[in-house]
Design goal:
The relative contact order is 0.16. This protein has 3 helices and 22 strands. By secondary structure, the chain is mainly β. The mean pLDDT is about 95.
């Protein structure tokens, strides 16, 4: 029995969950229940897509030019940034946003819930490279619950005898009609660091609209956010706990063209116009200490409603 056959034999759920591999050897969990569909790549513990059955378009966006290959980050979905956010403090050669999104994770459990949702548990598989970059005994898990809403619980456990500090984020890309027609609510009055302007510290006045490159880390906020999308006539609600930072990002034209994996959107324009990142995080001012023997959780729930 191949590893994929073994995975399907142990953890598939008839009529709800199965596993497949692509031509490059990446394995995906495919969920299709009465409430929603979703695809999760085992590399990175990475939710690639999520679409409730009530929606004509996905809620989680993935680029039409995304690369699905070993060791490559996927443009779109909900990448896991861990154990640091942004560049490493001292090692320029270490990957931005940590290594969690490009290494293998294993499925540890799957369940069909009485609610009709499907639950999948994954844990990061350590290797020599990860241990060299993160010399702390730890365990990273993600619990994915797929239904009318999408719940992601990122769980860090300190298995060692000394405290350590982490930065983390669920770097989620949301599918929208057009970036110029959306408004993000929930961060009014919050302080943020503006990465486009050399981390200038500012305060948000009113709702957030977009007319150029935006890359902001809102700090000291556990607020729920709502994306109001006039184009697709829906609201995407982002509720979180265990997170004190919210990152808001759109690359806009020039940066998107340099990336090479944004791809075209459904309207023929650049794919960047049809996505916005609203990331639940603990970053910069809000990095967290995980005491020896303790567990920290970052929890988010995404839901969608008519606008």
């Amino acid at each position: 029995m191949t590893p994929l056959e073994h995975l399907n034999a142990r953890l598939s759920i008839p009529g709800q969950l199965g596993f497949r591999a692509n031509a490059e050897g990446l394995v995906f969990a495919e969920i299709d229940n009465a409430q929603a569909t979703a695809s999760i790549c085992l590399q990175g513990g990475h939710v690639v897509t999520w679409q409730p059955k009530t929606e004509a378009r996905p809620v989680i966006w993935v680029s039409s030019a995304a690369k699905f290959a070993p060791g490559k980050s996927i443009r779109g979905g909900a990448p896991v940034c861990w154990p640091w956010f942004g560049p490493h403090e001292t090692e320029a050669g270490f990957p931005a946003h940590g290594y969690a999104r490009t290494v293998n994770w294993e499925v540890t459990d799957s369940r069909a819930l009485d609610s009709g949702e499907t639950e999948l548990a994954l844990a990061l598989v350590e290797n020599e490279q990860t241990r060299a970059q993160w010399p702390h005994r730890s365990r990273l898990e993600i619990l994915v619950t797929v239904g009318r809403s999408l719940k992601l619980n990122l769980i860090t456990t300190n298995l060692g005898d000394h405290d350590f500090v982490i930065g983390e984020a669920l770097h989620t890309y949301f599918e929208i009609g057009d970036i110029a027609e959306v408004r993000l609510l929930g961060l009014e009055g919050c302080e943020y660091l503006d990465k486009v302007e050399n981390f200038a510290r500012k305060r948000q006045e009113g709702g957030i609209t977009f007319s150029g490159e935006t890359d902001r880390v809102y700090v000291n906020t556990g607020a729920e956010c709502v994306i109001e999308d006039a184009g697709l006539r829906r609201r995407i609600r982002i509720a979180k706990s265990g997170s004190q930072s919210t990152v808001v990002w759109t690359p806009w034209v020039e940066k998107a063209e340099k990336m090479g994996d944004m791809g075209p959107g459904t309207s023929g324009q650049g794919g960047w116009r049809e996505m916005v990142c609203v990331e639940s995080a603990n970053a910069l001012d809000n990095r967290v200490t995980v005491p020896a023997g303790q567990t920290r959780r970052l929890n988010v729930e995404y839901s969608v409603e008519p606008f």
